[in-house]
Amino acid sequence: MSVSDKPASDLEQYPAARGVDSIEEARVWLAERGIEDIECITPDQAGVARGKMMPSSKFLSTSALALPSSIFMQTISGSYPEESDSFQYPPHDGDLRLVPDLSTLSAVPWETDPTAQVICDMHDYHGKPTNYTPRNVLRRVIDAYHSKGWKPVVAPEIEFYLVKTNDDPDIPLQPPVGRSGRAIAGGNGYSIAGVNEFDELVDDVYDYSGSQGLEIETLIHEEGAAQLEINLNHGDPLELADQVFMFKRTIREAALKHGMYATFMAKPSQNQPGSAMHVHQSVVDIETNNNIFTDSKGEESDQFRHFIGGMQHYLPKALVMMAPYVNSYRRLTTNTSAPVNVRWGYDNRTTGLRIPTSDPQARRVENRVPSSDANPYLALAASLACGYLGLEQELACDDSVALAANEGNNDLPRGLLDALGLFEGGNKLQEILGPDFVGVYAAIKREEYETFMQVISPWEREYLLLNV
Fold first, then answer.
1. What is the CATH number of domain 17-126?
2. Is the overall model pTM greater than 0.90, yes or no?
3. Per-domain residue ranges for the chain?
4. Within its chain, how far is the Cα of 157 from the centroid?
5. What are phi and psi of 348, to 5 degrees?
6. Residues 6+ apart with CB under 8 A from 216
7. pLDDT tens for residues 204-227?
8. Distance of CA 64 to the CA centre of its chain
9. What is the pLDDT of residue 2?
10. Among residues 382, 383, 381, 378, which one has the least CA distance to residue 366?
């Protein structure tokens, strides 16, 4: 059941749950709810929430909120990359300003004391948006569409696993025990009983989401053991990236309340399917509000095929933003359910680019390549940038594929370093994303790879210890 499907009596619990237009409205909103504390948060390069907590009175009376710029140059493990020709740290690790986006103001429903949260943009002290922070990278791509008179529309689908709590990273993850008293097994795709195993947790996800003004379209059980998927309504890319950012926090907190973890790792378990973040994309003409993928006769437009052509040409170069970790490439393996190609087809789930069955006005391209571990702001920015470049350059697409396309050769970079090489290869993608961002992001990913290489895996101990 989606939040919008809940009875009116339930929806009345969430009046004006999300967003205000001014600081004065924020003052009233906070007072009406008795909010004592507020979290000012922003996504770092990994999509982790960074920021500051303060009393609501302090929030209303100050504009001097800041974070060190180095926060956005840190790896997922907390280390920092070496400087290079394409990447240098700002002098003295200067501060960046947190600028609250009041349209994102909402409650933090899992806190025991009345607490609110607001997502912030990052500016320098001259008031200029920082061009390497994730929210601003996505804005840069959206602005490119607007400059052409277009408005991109997206609808993400996020897969994740519920697992038993585990404080030892050397021990493989296990599925949690559901209400039946047994650990759920795999092969439960679209099983209502599979979802009902965790119905109390799911109820909390809906309640937490409603009180934050987040709208779930559907929730299903996927093929993996205790693997779920949440689909979001379509809309503005920045708003949807904000929602995915908040949903990840929400789902993790709901899982912890019920004594388990929620993980968005791309491949958390060796013998289970990986987790994806599929992205449905269309483009609307701002003046007419018509879908530019459909012509006046209701048929596929040239722009529809140019968008696909851009995805096919640039997606491998942008893959490191959609598959950002070494683990991401364990999901992108041939002869599995994951797409490992840039082919396209009608209602073909083996292609990297699927065209769902729809009426002409809802014609869209589903990018099935991104992993659920991706920063939603950067994954959406990368995917939309590929399509934009196809439109701008009027790139041709290949013929559609009707048969299975995920067998045989892998059309995508096979590992993180290969993907980085294409990402840094000097192309139009760097121009639309911004060279400062590309330099920072590539440096972080190289450092993460070097950190990963310091770890000796069980496979190495199993097969090399006594055999070589």
1. 3.10.20.70
2. yes
3. 17-126
4. 9
5. -110, 105
6. 2, 3, 205, 206, 209, 230, 231, 232
7. 999 999 999 998 999 999 999 999
8. 29
9. 35
10. 383
